[in-house]
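REVIEWER CHECKLIST
Item 1: Sequence provided? yes
Item 2: Single chain? yes
Item 3: Sequence as submitted:
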Amino acid sequence: MSAKSASAKLKLVLCWHMHQPEYRDLTTGEFILPWTYLHVIKDYVDMAAHLEACPNAKAVVNFAPILLEQIADYAKQIQAFLHEQKPIKDSLLAALASNVIPENPEVILTLIKACLRANRERQKNRYPVYKRLADMADWLEQHFENLAYINAQYITDIVVWYHLAWMGETVKLSNDKIKHLIEKGHSYTEYDKRELLEIIGELHSHIIHRYQVLAKNGQIELSFTPYAHPIMPLLLDLNSAKEAMPHVEMPQQKSYPDGESRCVWHIEQGLNTFKRYFGFAPSGCWPSEGSICARTLHLLNKHQIRWTASGGAVLRHSLIAAEHSLADYNDYNHRAYQLNNTNVTCFFGMMDYRI
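Item 4: Structure as written out by the authors:
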């Protein structure tokens, strides 16, 4: 590598897509799965902290509107429990809040198994006490008849450790209460549980505002996704699936009912939700799964969206459809494109779903 190339700056935009689907039962308000609040205390908090610690770092952060609503719902429910003793509508988080240990063996086993949904190497094995509790839980799953011998302290400890293991690294390093709970290791009390719940509540109550401040300071750009993460090209034209998968088996239904009006609703509802939480309208959109088509871009253009992004595979299929030689693919990649008769600039890049 030459000295000139080694010192040259690479023009790179990092776009972080924060997305969780709707986990609530819309008839009861119950959270069926806990992934929204767990990713808040882990990934979303850590990303905000890393950006705050490096004021010269720049990034684009995208939020799915349905995620923003769920974060706000958790924050509201936790505060309502702490101040008014109103129930939390998430069974796993409610187990941390409650001082009542279930008596039904099947309910106990369901709770214990929920506390095992963590990475074996990076979360369970990292902490000897949690590993021991998890190993016991694995054994109990195979020996159901022994659940009668599990006491309240075991349930309390594994519930606390599950939440400690999911806690973001920046929180573990900076919060003295979390440090103390990790060092204590076992024999957690109701006071310990409440203290941990208060920290989780604080993280939820502040996380949206932290990203809002980062955007206000010009360090990040906030963008949005249509409301409930729809695949808009399929809503507009089911046959668009063949552009990515020419041999895909198509449904008997020829088109998605009211597809275009549904797309418009998701865009407008997404924009309204974004503005409600961040106080301004975004200029960029990360379409669900990076799915775009010409009609999608025209709809975004009508709603004053000025840029969108997708993955390299979408560009590659577009080039094939336009009969361009893929031998020149690198000449087409990592460029800005604009569809005729729109003001929407489209970017294509690498996509990574490991987080």
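Item 5: Key structural point noted by reviewer: Residues 232-349 form one domain.
Item 6: Recommendation: ____
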